[in-house]
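so ive been stuck on this for like two days lol. basically i have the seq below and the ligand is zinc ion, smiles is in there too. i just want the complex predicted, nothing fancy, no docking runs or whatever. if the output looks off dont worry ill sanity check it later, just need somthing to start from for the group meeting slides
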Amino acid sequence: MDFINDSKYEIKLTQTFKTLDIFKLVFAIVYIMLISIIMYAEVEVNKVLQDWLIILTHAAGAPLIIALWKTQWLAITLLIGIVFSVASHASIIFDWNVDKIEPMDIAFANLTLVLIAIVVIFDKIPEWTIPVLFTLTVLNTIFWDVVWVYSITSGIINLCVAVYVCYRLCVPTPRRNVTFMVIGLLMGICGTVFFLRDGHHSDKNYAILHSVWHICSYGSLYFAVRSIRPDVDIQELRRPRIEFARKLEFGKFAYKD
Ligand SMILES: [Zn+2]
């Protein structure tokens, strides 16, 4: 708690936003507004441009990988997820083996979501979460076309993160950047609205609406990761190593003390 009263820490807080953070936030806001205006004005966007946008917006995942690079197993898992997502959208565009490739995208997208939720909510990764991750991934891969399966799991996970963010707003700690957490939460909510409205693969505006989901979801995960341990080095873009808990316990919430 001494940290909060430390004037040096307060000064440092104003230097929290790195160039990449500002670029990511401004780009996301401009992109969301631009697509919203296009949709509101009912402008017809040709399919080729929409297909390019749905593929190119995966680049929004790159800063997330950079921020997590110190924890390579996590960064590479997320990178594989991005590759599967590109493959899945390419398979939809070319109508090639969609029913084999899309399940991998759905499984890894949910795996990414749960992994980030765990590192946000817990101090260290509790061991029990690993079998839960395996089980959820298998369930999401098999029941990829049953919407309620991943809707319920991702809904519960998002609710847990939202509760944690609200708790942190009430009880702030120097070990968690609340501004980044709130930006992450708002981007996640905004992305979900576009995700729920993108409709079917064959719908007229599916690709352009879904491209906003890419920008928002990667942005949300990025700011969630950036909120972790600003007290270690506030100037550091890459987040400190994320560890596994050694003790047999449910897990220590980040952060009690
Ligand atoms: Zn997608």
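The mean pLDDT is 90. Residues 85, 89, 210, 214 surround zinc ion (CB under 6 Å).
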